[in-house]
């Protein structure tokens, strides 16, 4: 199997290289008269270099790229980055995958799962498994996407790749500033907009400067909710984001640079982008039948998501004659609350327990709280000379304290529990720990500690041939205490779980400059993701079959990946083209699975899986004023093992040749911008039209969604006139979809105006599938924002 895959890999490599060389030859004759592209400088190797000189596959979306595409989030940007996939699981809860390396859907109540893509804000690591920070893109210099495992320089969590938000640094030489205002309206929804501002103030010319950024965004709602007794609320998923950055750069001497910084952001969303097709309290099978329209859901209680993030970091650089010393110290304090209407979940259990109708109808609020404090310290030395050997060595330390709490306030539930199941039952299952009227209560404090040593060296064999070798040794320890009580709980109090691991991840790269415009790269590298321990199963909710299948899962091992790739980078004055072909061999892939009626999620290891594909990015300026870009990827991501459960059935869709979840086979995005002189009232200006078209292929939210019969849901709950035997049949393969964004703008010397339309065709896409308690309580799909019209004004100082 491996041999067969490698033959495919070689073929796509030759295809990519041939295509690139063909484009080079065709365009070389025109390079004399073309206008040069602006050079993009990146720091993906922890030293500044041209993106075309980085010896592996990387994308950088610059500030101009972000503006041209109209992107307002990382999810918007991802369509223009080959190989990058972000699956929307709700506000602040996106799932990131690079090159198809994906464990499938991770949900908010799996706090022990580690990320597969590392996310950095400049030099500070900010990734947190499911809760990938949804940072504002204002005043960014660029967003770098490093494809393939980056374990050597960026450590655990970068098994698929790394994303880096690179901010504009304080300018020591001159004052600058800008302010922008946006107003938009969503078709069938409400209004939104933002106000953002930046000021850069030199405090002492050439030696210190302060850069201050502030922003506030109001998000329009577009999801409507049916309420009990015929009520109806419009636009329940609106919200806001407020934040800012303050960075101070000080150069006490010519050789020392200190940059302390404070970042704060608060997101407050009033609901989720879920359009339902079935709810215990609202479905076509009830006496008072409900058939949901597009972008509708049912709520007994309002839902919400809050994320308050504070980051303090200090970057210190000391430049010696031929060596640079860099220290990065970072502290993160993050509070996250996911508040869900769990009435259908609790009500479905109440039906199973034989509770009266009044109790089944109790409003029930599931509150997931995550508090994180993380300290990291990196210290590294790097060469700074013109010799043939360039090197970097460093050490990394991190300590994370993470507190996770989940409880289920359901007023009146204890009294009904005692009446039906016997006096004193609620107190007995609460074990003196659970709050009153909370049939489920869980607390999981974590302590995670990691130490690593890394190094990388590049040697110039000749003026055109360069070899890079590096590696990282890591040692990791995790300890947590588990309490899970209540009627729906496991009856565990202060159970201690520990896990630890250590290992070494190498990387070898080769780069050959075939000509002044063509560079060929090859890489072999290893990445890793730390293992962990599953939460205790909610055994009280499990039926006998699910308890048998899922009851034995506890710990899961580290995931590792070997990446093999070859690529070409072609640069001219009129175009640039980067292409790569890759094959990844994954061992012990950590897959997450919905444990059916248990209303739990578990993680387990799949012995073997692979991804392979080609990615291509092309930019051109065929005529003066016209800029064109294309980014696309063709991908195969499959299991190479079959996992069998205790009943002898395939577990969770993990069958050899089944697709990995959350990953499309084909993605692409293209942007075209035409600029031309424009005169208004005698003032010279430049105007532009811009269009961005993005296509996402089909995918599955979980591996099990592709198994025969996966889309047939029978609740088994006789309630509200519904017999419980009727089936809801859904297609769980999320269809491909396309979006088109258009904009028109005018740029004066210090003023810019833009009018735009996003999702011009008003595509209603299914982004991911949402199920509660295995689909017995609720079924729905998360969807995208409808057609949106907006205007933006930006003033430069």
Q: State the assembly state of the protein chains.
A: single chain
User: In total, how many domains does the architecture comprise?
Assistant: 1
CATH topology: Maltoporin, Chain A
Number of DSSP strand runs: 41
Largest sheet: 22 strands, antiparallel, barrel
At CATH level 2, the architecture is Beta Barrel
Structural class: mainly beta
CATH class: Mainly Beta
Beginning-to-end CA distance, first to last residue: 61 Å
Brief summary of the model shown:
The protein is mostly beta strands and 797 residues long. The protein is built from nine helices and 41 strands.
What's the layout of helices and strands?
Elements: H1 2-28, E1 41-42, E2 49-50, E3 58-62, H2 63-69, H3 74-78, E4 84-87, E5 95-98, E6 117-121, E7 124-125, E8 140-147, H4 151-154, E9 161-167, E10 176-186, E11 191-204, E12 208-219, E13 224-226, E14 232-233, E15 239-253, E16 256-269, E17 274-279, E18 296-298, E19 304-319, E20 323-341, H5 343-353, H6 357-360, E21 365-383, E22 389-407, H7 413-421, H8 425-430, E23 441-460, E24 465-485, E25 492-513, E26 518-529, E27 532-533, H9 544-550, E28 555-556, E29 559-571, E30 575-594, E31 601-620, E32 626-639, E33 666-680, E34 683-696, E35 712-714, E36 727-729, E37 737-747, E38 751-758, E39 766-772, E40 778-783, E41 788-796
Parallel strand pairs: 6-9, 13-18
Antiparallel strand pairs: 1-2, 3-8, 4-5, 6-7, 8-9, 10-11, 10-41, 11-12, 12-15, 13-14, 15-16, 16-19, 17-40, 19-20, 20-21, 21-22, 22-23, 23-24, 24-25, 25-26, 26-29, 27-28, 29-30, 30-31, 31-32, 32-33, 33-34, 34-37, 35-36, 37-38, 38-41, 39-40
